[in-house]
TrEMBL record:
Protein name (Swiss-Prot/TrEMBL): Pimeloyl-ACP methyl ester carboxylesterase
Source organism (scientific name): Nonomuraea jabiensis
Xref: InterPro entries: AB_hydrolase_fold (IPR029058)
Domain of life: Bacteria
Length: 159
Protein backbone atom coordinates (compact mmCIF):
# COMPACT_ATOMS: atom_id res chain seq x y z
CA UNK A 1 0.00 0.00 0.00
CA UNK A 2 2.70 2.49 0.94
CA UNK A 3 5.69 1.73 -1.35
CA UNK A 4 4.59 4.38 -3.91
CA UNK A 5 4.87 6.99 -1.14
CA UNK A 6 8.29 5.93 0.20
CA UNK A 7 10.18 8.49 -1.94
CA UNK A 8 8.35 11.14 0.09
CA UNK A 9 9.84 10.04 3.43
CA UNK A 10 12.80 12.45 3.19
CA UNK A 11 11.09 15.02 5.42
CA UNK A 12 10.35 12.53 8.20
CA UNK A 13 12.60 12.18 11.25
CA UNK A 14 15.44 9.75 10.59
CA UNK A 15 14.19 7.04 12.98
CA UNK A 16 10.79 7.04 11.24
CA UNK A 17 12.40 6.87 7.79
CA UNK A 18 14.52 3.96 8.97
CA UNK A 19 11.49 2.15 10.44
CA UNK A 20 9.52 2.53 7.19
CA UNK A 21 12.39 1.43 4.98
CA UNK A 22 13.21 -1.52 7.26
CA UNK A 23 9.55 -2.60 7.26
CA UNK A 24 9.65 -2.78 3.46
CA UNK A 25 13.05 -4.49 3.36
CA UNK A 26 14.79 -1.55 1.69
CA UNK A 27 17.35 -1.34 4.50
CA UNK A 28 18.32 -3.72 7.28
CA UNK A 29 16.80 -2.95 10.66
CA UNK A 30 19.48 -1.45 12.91
CA UNK A 31 17.35 -0.96 16.02
CA UNK A 32 15.53 -3.37 18.29
CA UNK A 33 11.92 -3.91 17.17
CA UNK A 34 9.83 -1.03 18.50
CA UNK A 35 6.49 -0.63 16.70
CA UNK A 36 6.01 3.04 17.61
CA UNK A 37 8.45 4.63 15.09
CA UNK A 38 6.80 2.63 12.27
CA UNK A 39 3.27 3.54 13.38
CA UNK A 40 4.08 7.22 13.78
CA UNK A 41 6.12 7.18 10.55
CA UNK A 42 3.19 5.82 8.55
CA UNK A 43 0.85 8.36 10.16
CA UNK A 44 3.23 11.26 9.45
CA UNK A 45 3.85 10.08 5.88
CA UNK A 46 0.13 9.92 5.09
CA UNK A 47 -0.50 13.27 6.81
CA UNK A 48 2.31 14.97 4.86
CA UNK A 49 1.24 13.55 1.49
CA UNK A 50 -2.41 14.48 2.19
CA UNK A 51 -1.43 18.14 2.54
CA UNK A 52 -0.62 18.27 -1.18
CA UNK A 53 -3.23 15.81 -2.50
CA UNK A 54 -6.02 13.58 -1.21
CA UNK A 55 -4.98 10.02 -0.37
CA UNK A 56 -7.09 6.89 -0.84
CA UNK A 57 -5.59 3.96 1.02
CA UNK A 58 -7.11 0.64 -0.12
CA UNK A 59 -6.43 -2.57 1.78
CA UNK A 60 -7.93 -5.82 0.51
CA UNK A 61 -8.25 -9.14 2.38
CA UNK A 62 -7.46 -7.41 5.67
CA UNK A 63 -8.45 -10.55 7.59
CA UNK A 64 -5.23 -12.12 6.25
CA UNK A 65 -2.92 -9.29 7.39
CA UNK A 66 -0.45 -10.13 10.12
CA UNK A 67 -1.00 -8.65 13.57
CA UNK A 68 1.70 -5.97 13.20
CA UNK A 69 0.19 -4.68 9.94
CA UNK A 70 -3.31 -4.59 11.43
CA UNK A 71 -1.93 -2.74 14.46
CA UNK A 72 -0.26 -0.12 12.25
CA UNK A 73 -3.42 0.37 10.20
CA UNK A 74 -5.58 0.60 13.32
CA UNK A 75 -3.20 3.09 14.94
CA UNK A 76 -3.15 5.27 11.82
CA UNK A 77 -6.91 5.13 11.26
CA UNK A 78 -7.62 6.31 14.81
CA UNK A 79 -5.48 9.41 14.23
CA UNK A 80 -6.29 10.53 10.67
CA UNK A 81 -9.11 12.95 11.58
CA UNK A 82 -8.57 16.27 9.86
CA UNK A 83 -6.40 14.84 7.07
CA UNK A 84 -7.45 14.26 3.46
CA UNK A 85 -6.97 10.51 3.81
CA UNK A 86 -9.71 7.97 3.15
CA UNK A 87 -9.17 4.34 4.11
CA UNK A 88 -11.13 1.59 2.38
CA UNK A 89 -10.77 -1.85 3.95
CA UNK A 90 -12.08 -5.03 2.37
CA UNK A 91 -12.44 -8.14 4.48
CA UNK A 92 -14.54 -11.25 4.66
CA UNK A 93 -17.17 -11.42 7.35
CA UNK A 94 -19.72 -9.04 8.75
CA UNK A 95 -17.57 -7.24 11.33
CA UNK A 96 -14.18 -5.53 11.13
CA UNK A 97 -11.26 -7.94 11.74
CA UNK A 98 -9.45 -8.04 15.08
CA UNK A 99 -7.36 -4.95 15.70
CA UNK A 100 -9.83 -2.53 14.09
CA UNK A 101 -12.52 -0.41 15.68
CA UNK A 102 -15.60 -2.65 15.88
CA UNK A 103 -17.77 0.40 15.14
CA UNK A 104 -16.33 0.97 11.66
CA UNK A 105 -19.09 1.31 9.05
CA UNK A 106 -19.64 -2.02 7.31
CA UNK A 107 -21.26 -2.46 3.92
CA UNK A 108 -21.85 -6.12 3.05
CA UNK A 109 -21.24 -6.79 -0.65
CA UNK A 110 -22.67 -9.64 -2.68
CA UNK A 111 -20.57 -11.06 -5.53
CA UNK A 112 -21.07 -10.16 -9.16
CA UNK A 113 -21.44 -12.96 -11.63
CA UNK A 114 -18.44 -13.53 -13.92
CA UNK A 115 -20.47 -12.10 -16.79
CA UNK A 116 -21.40 -8.97 -14.86
CA UNK A 117 -17.79 -8.48 -13.67
CA UNK A 118 -16.56 -8.75 -17.26
CA UNK A 119 -19.18 -6.19 -18.34
CA UNK A 120 -18.00 -3.76 -15.64
CA UNK A 121 -14.40 -4.13 -16.81
CA UNK A 122 -15.40 -3.65 -20.47
CA UNK A 123 -17.47 -0.60 -19.61
CA UNK A 124 -14.50 0.85 -17.75
CA UNK A 125 -12.41 0.26 -20.86
CA UNK A 126 -9.91 -1.93 -19.07
CA UNK A 127 -9.05 -5.56 -18.60
CA UNK A 128 -7.53 -4.77 -15.22
CA UNK A 129 -7.96 -1.83 -12.91
CA UNK A 130 -4.68 -0.11 -12.11
CA UNK A 131 -5.51 0.84 -8.53
CA UNK A 132 -4.09 -1.80 -6.21
CA UNK A 133 -6.89 -3.96 -4.84
CA UNK A 134 -9.61 -2.38 -6.99
CA UNK A 135 -9.63 -5.17 -9.56
CA UNK A 136 -10.68 -7.64 -6.86
CA UNK A 137 -13.29 -5.22 -5.54
CA UNK A 138 -14.81 -4.87 -9.02
CA UNK A 139 -14.65 -8.60 -9.61
CA UNK A 140 -16.47 -9.60 -6.42
CA UNK A 141 -18.71 -6.65 -5.57
CA UNK A 142 -21.69 -4.81 -6.95
CA UNK A 143 -20.40 -1.60 -8.57
CA UNK A 144 -23.10 0.55 -6.95
CA UNK A 145 -22.15 -0.77 -3.50
CA UNK A 146 -18.46 -0.06 -4.11
CA UNK A 147 -19.34 3.51 -5.16
CA UNK A 148 -21.60 3.92 -2.10
CA UNK A 149 -18.89 2.61 0.21
CA UNK A 150 -16.30 5.02 -1.22
CA UNK A 151 -18.74 7.97 -0.94
CA UNK A 152 -19.48 7.00 2.69
CA UNK A 153 -15.77 6.74 3.49
CA UNK A 154 -15.09 10.16 1.95
CA UNK A 155 -18.05 11.67 3.81
CA UNK A 156 -16.89 10.15 7.10
CA UNK A 157 -13.36 11.56 6.75
CA UNK A 158 -14.52 15.03 5.70
CA UNK A 159 -16.68 15.58 8.79
Amino acid sequence: MLPPLLPETDDLPEHQQEALKAAFGIVAATRQHDPMPLRVGVLNLLARVSRSRPVLLIADDVQHFDRDTRDVLGFVMRRLAGHAVTVLLAARGHTPPDGFNPDLPVLPLAPLSRRAAAAVRRQAGATAVEVEGASHAVAVSRPKDVADLIREAVRATSV
